[in-house]
From TrEMBL, chains A, B:
Subcellular location: Cytoplasm
Encoding gene, per UniProt annotation: phoU
Tree of life domain: Bacteria
Similarity section: Belongs to the PhoU family.
Protein's recorded name: Phosphate-specific transport system accessory protein PhoU
Length: 239, 239
């Protein structure tokens, strides 16, 4: 076992893996809180909360850095193979998805600050509903990941279609709203970008679901995702 | 040196690293082509080209998978340290950024298909100009990365502010355009999402610039980026 550059290799590989697992669990919890806070900030027009969410994004980034460093260290010093290698890679990937999720949540919070300077707009209700759905999916998929529950992961994956359907209908709702009252165009564009942030969070939750399946079964889900992203075509359907 | 699971360890570490470098160079070239094609498809309303760009995104994904697999293999089997470890990690990160860049280019191409079904809109000219700037920055940063030119990388990084300024002015231009003629709202929202794609490509080019600096000098750029993203606040400035 190489020890170059590290004087503290006294832990077993399983202990190291457990530490990595715990770091990811903590990162998942933080990310859930960030998403929850971002949606609450939108719903209640709470600029203080939105600012807190923006500032706390760095905590999730720090978690990811820790996971990345530990992963590289484990790969380089322990040279894991088979199941162990899969567990390390899955953690690295899941951490990347969580970081992106938190980033989208922080972006949504940032835009809510702008929206709070304008009169409320009706489609916000649908946006918050979509946010709550994605929040529930994230909770489910984290649970599936941390308990190695492949069935539950597949269930989350199959529900991403609901998110996409909500996104499509929300996109049309916002467009209609802007067309009927052009004074709402600026607010409408921000709502659209937030909706896109939330839709992307759903995609990252799906990534984690697929990673969970791979982690537990050793097989990649090579069939197509149950859905294709058609969001860019909403405008066309609209015409 | 462990050889478990691999019967072909005859190459030297330097040869392996060279292979990884070449794979990244090829991935960089493909990604540049994808971005160039996406911008041309927008400018010339060329739906055939846009479709080709969307379909070819998988080639960039394949490159990233190859780089990822090779990186994990190198880390696990060769346990590199110091400069070698840095080179492997830098390649992994740069490949991730290139994959995201190609993804944004494919998204832009997808939206151009929708725009081609609508009458042309004036702000497209500014969008294409912004696209060309980002295209130039990507070419520069790839050159800096592949030739290990830290100075050139810093120069690219400092120019990301130009992209953000163009994005801000474009965002205002599109908003004004939509407000003056609400029939352009649908096209305008697609332009905004494409502008966001291009702005994000600029961010990823900046990431590669920072990674290049780290690769060459061993030091991280820990000062703040020359700019902060204020795009979400454009709407507020607009009010």
């Amino acid at each position: 076992m190489p020890t170059i550059g590290d004087q503290h290799i006294v832990r077993s590989f399983d202990e190291e893996l457990k530490r990595l697992h715990d770091a990811l669990a903590r990162m998942g919890g933080l990310t859930e809180q960030q998403l929850k806070g971002a949606i609450e900030a939108l719903e209640h027009r709470d600029s203080d909360l939105a600012t807190r969410i923006m500032n706390d994004d760095v905590r999730v980034d720090d978690c990811e850095s820790f996971v990345n460093e530990q992963t590289v260290r484990l790969l380089a010093l322990r040279a894991p193979v088979a199941d162990d290698l899969r567990a390390v890679i899955a953690t690295l990937k899941a951490a990347g998805d969580l970081e992106r999720i938190a980033d989208h949540a922080a972006n949504a919070a940032k835009r809510s600050l702008v929206l709070n300077q304008m009169p409320p707009v009706a489609p916000m209700r649908s946006l918050v509903r979509m946010g709550r759905l994605v929040q529930a999916l994230l909770a489910e998929v984290l649970d599936a990941y941390l308990t190695h529950d492949a069935e539950k992961a597949l269930a989350v994956r199959s529900r991403d279609q609901e998110v996409d359907d909500l996104y499509s209908s929300l996109f049309r709702e916002i467009l209609t709203y802007m067309m009927e009252d052009p004074r709402t165009i600026t607010a409408g564009t921000h709502l659209m970008f937030i909706a896109k942030n939330i839709e992307r969070i759903g995609d990252h939750a799906t990534n984690i679901a697929e990673m969970t399946y791979f982690l537990v079964t050793g097989r990649k889900l090579n069939d197509q995702r149950p859905k294709r992203d058609t969001s860019a075509l909403e405008g066309a359907e609209q015409e």
